[in-house]
Design goal:
homodimer, alpha/beta, six-stranded mixed beta sheet, 13 strands, globular
Amino acid sequence: MARGYEVRPDELGTVHIGLGAIGVAVARLVHERGARIVGAVDIAPDLAGRPLAEVLGLSAALDGVTVAGDLADVATDSADVALHCAGSVLAAAAPGLSAAMAAGLHVVSTCEELAYPWDDEPELATRLDREARAAGVTLLGTGVNPGYAMDYLPAVLTAPCRHVTSIDVLRVQEAGGRRAALQRKVGAGLSADEFAAGVAAGRLGHVGLGRSARALAAALGWRLEGVDETIEPLLGDVDGTAGAEDQVSGVHQVATGATAAGQRVRLTLDMGVGVADPREEMHVHGEPELHVTVPGGIPGDVATAALVANVLPRVLAAPPGLLVMTDLPPPRPWG
Amino acid sequence: MARGYEVRPDELGTVHIGLGAIGVAVARLVHERGARIVGAVDIAPDLAGRPLAEVLGLSAALDGVTVAGDLADVATDSADVALHCAGSVLAAAAPGLSAAMAAGLHVVSTCEELAYPWDDEPELATRLDREARAAGVTLLGTGVNPGYAMDYLPAVLTAPCRHVTSIDVLRVQEAGGRRAALQRKVGAGLSADEFAAGVAAGRLGHVGLGRSARALAAALGWRLEGVDETIEPLLGDVDGTAGAEDQVSGVHQVATGATAAGQRVRLTLDMGVGVADPREEMHVHGEPELHVTVPGGIPGDVATAALVANVLPRVLAAPPGLLVMTDLPPPRPWG
């Protein structure tokens, strides 16, 4: 609506798929905002059958909703949207996304690879897009990164530009205060050899940097000829003990891509324990040149849960299909 | 489209209403990008009948388009959108906007008061909205400010927030290198008495700061109880001569508004000759707290012309009616 859009939280019914740290934060947030939680699903045996309110740590009864082991056991008739926080790898998440869409639900997912699957997994993306259109629902991958900090926000910065030749985005995140899973993911405390082994095994590092590069380029109408991704350890004295110079404190990841015409995207992510000067930094090169900084940066866990909740009114108003974030007008808090 | 949207500039036909500095910059830009300029209108007697190419300083013939004194004399059949850069006051601009819509054209205008007219001129806004819907076209006010720097961009910054209690935006612009009309508008070189007289007569200051506050609040779903606007001189030594301490170097404008629940918007605009540290600065208060800076700021004239051009694909894909910028997905350069 032109005058500023209204949100009626009590008219929004949600199903929560995946009750890890982010899934719980999302469910708590939409509950706080007055949405109706219709169902919850998690494959963990120790969650099956438990009252959702207890899992979320809420005193509210949540209409007696319990955690189901499978979406088929949830009465989805009065739900509008599934909030899917269950995995980073799209091929693994796809069956869950498809099931939710087949149940007639819009789906918003934190699956990092869903943020922009068109270039890396075109067949899977096309299939999910087709399923969404057939069901008349919208499918969207979002989160702080991919989804916002290194793609949506930098894309927004090009709006006042006559032309853009390249974009550099740097995200420096402190992992020390973050959830344990993230600290493990960045390899803090490992030796350089252990880090290399973890990278080789695919256990370490942020998933989705290349997808952010793809998403940002696509938002600008650029066709990248390819994306190169590197991952190296941040080395340093993590815990103040002597002789820790060889100890890994985190990851240094870079994704770069260029078009045939030489337009270029470069995303750098430094995430570790005890990193100096956490921040977001964006340089848009072109006319005009723009340099944007966010001192302290955007806190990842809070922001991802907020983004999932904040996009809901935009998703409900969007056309069916597999969308990307820059297809949507700006999300904002509601409720 | 989900994969990044395509723009076919040669399928875009434009009519340019108003050939002042910004209107000329807009026309040159869409021409550079390959759009078809179908017509041009300006009420200035010395422009009437002149070849548009000559007015724009282009060697291209532009299909022999000449400047008409009235839109009725332009063959609008092959045009899609009118780019209207003719005045800051909506009541004065409205007849021109209505005529373009009646001709079946989408309209993008730099008229500052069009950026968010719903609260200050609800009857006029409602009428223009009705006319746009009746004609099946979209009407949008945009520019760097209002339109982007103090409304769209700050609204985008709330996307990763659980909640927001207030937003402060500061825009410090150097007017020294800008067009003469702007330098006059900020009162540079006047005495304090002359400045006060100019403010009283409505000759000085930036038009639209209150509209930006309204637009930003509406984008967040906030209903402001009112907006207070103040305008004061920036005093200082403009040209390096002794004894210039009382001379005006620019304007210091503030627009504030609050909701009944205490949510607050505060926009501050300092624009003058020789201002220190030009920049954009935004503080989003809530969870998380976000602080964003754009050192050097966003250059106004370049950015306004770019925004008018950049929104065109988004406007063509938008629903009919009087829209505001935050109704649209992020614009970006094309062509």
